Amino acid sequence: MKIELNQNKVFYNNGSEKKEIHPFWLRERVNGEEYLDKGTQQRLFDPTSLSSDISINKANINENYLEIDFNDGVTSKLEIDKIALEFSKEDIVIKSIEKTKWDSRLKNIKNFQYQKDFYESKEMHDLLVSFYQYGFVIIKNIPTSKNYIVEFANSIGSVRRTNFGEYFNVKSKPDPNDLAYTSLALAPHTDNPYRNPVPCIQLLHCIESKVSGGLSSLVDGYTVTEELRSKFPEFYEILTEVKVRFRFIDKEVILETISPLIELNDDKSFKQVRFSPRLDYVPILDKEKLNLYYQARKKLSEMYNSEKYRIEFKLEPKDLIMMDNHRLLHGRTSYETKEGERFLQGCYIDFDSTEGKLRHLKRKFNL
Ligand SMILES: [Fe+2]
What we know:
Layout (H helix, E strand, L loop, with lengths): L1 E5 L2 E5 L4 E3 L2 H5 L28 E7 L2 E6 L4 E5 H6 L26 E2 L8 H13 L1 E5 L7 H9 L2 E2 L7 E3 L15 E4 L11 E9 L6 E5 H11 L1 H9 L2 E6 L4 E6 L2 E3 L5 E4 L6 E2 L5 H19 L4 E4 L6 E5 L3 E5 L9 E8 L1 H15 L2
Helix pairs in contact: 3-8, 5-6, 6-7
The structure holds fe (ii) ion (FE2).
């Protein structure tokens, strides 16, 4: 992209088109120390209080800078590279990490090791990039004392508290309010589809595992969605269109949200999957439409439950898995409580935690 000048007007030229940049847009970005706080990069003035007929008295390009005198007496020197960055509509840090589709053949994914000064390390940067590629990452050797998972979560961002508390203990217990707290097998599902917004990332930390079963399983909802789209377009369409009700009822709360099983972004790209077939209720629709919906949901469930897409592994004590609850489904195989203890701790964090940390580490290491 190039900045060009013509009669005190500033233009951007991206090779295919040339358009004038609004003078007010440039005026909002003045960066002298009386206008912009250097530390926070927050404005020291309120642009809504400026006159709306801002214009440019004089503009000049000096090497990598655009120098402007505005008609309200303010002068500014703007870095052309920074202006260019603003023309990218995408979030250049997160969206530039391409998702890697995977299925049961996924092999040799890198595990990360907890170490001193972990949260500020290049290793943490690489871990977060891997997380955005695959939708999950496993970290070995995480301390297990004093609910350390909360410290882990708060060292990346902040814990997202839910109706299960700040963190939760996953072990079989009497009178459970969720099947997670039994020793039964759990089919692939996403967590908390009834919450608005759905918690973004689940952390699960293995404290103890003395049972032979209780394997963890993961399925890439993104891979399955893409395959459904290409092989069963009608099913894909109805599952992205029909909004269903997810509900969770406890003694103190009723949580409810209405969303499609496959949610897309405005540009029709993949956004999120929700799947928890014990909790979803489709509204009454025309019988024909429901016919198609039920066929589509059955196909989707077969795919999610198929060995073709599933990876299975055993979490060892001190292993912590971080998984994208908007992209991946997780489950576990059953286990025998008489074999011994199986004890995991879990909590949630949101994408602003991982995104904020990753942007910070990129800046820190100049990556
Ligand atoms: Fe779960």
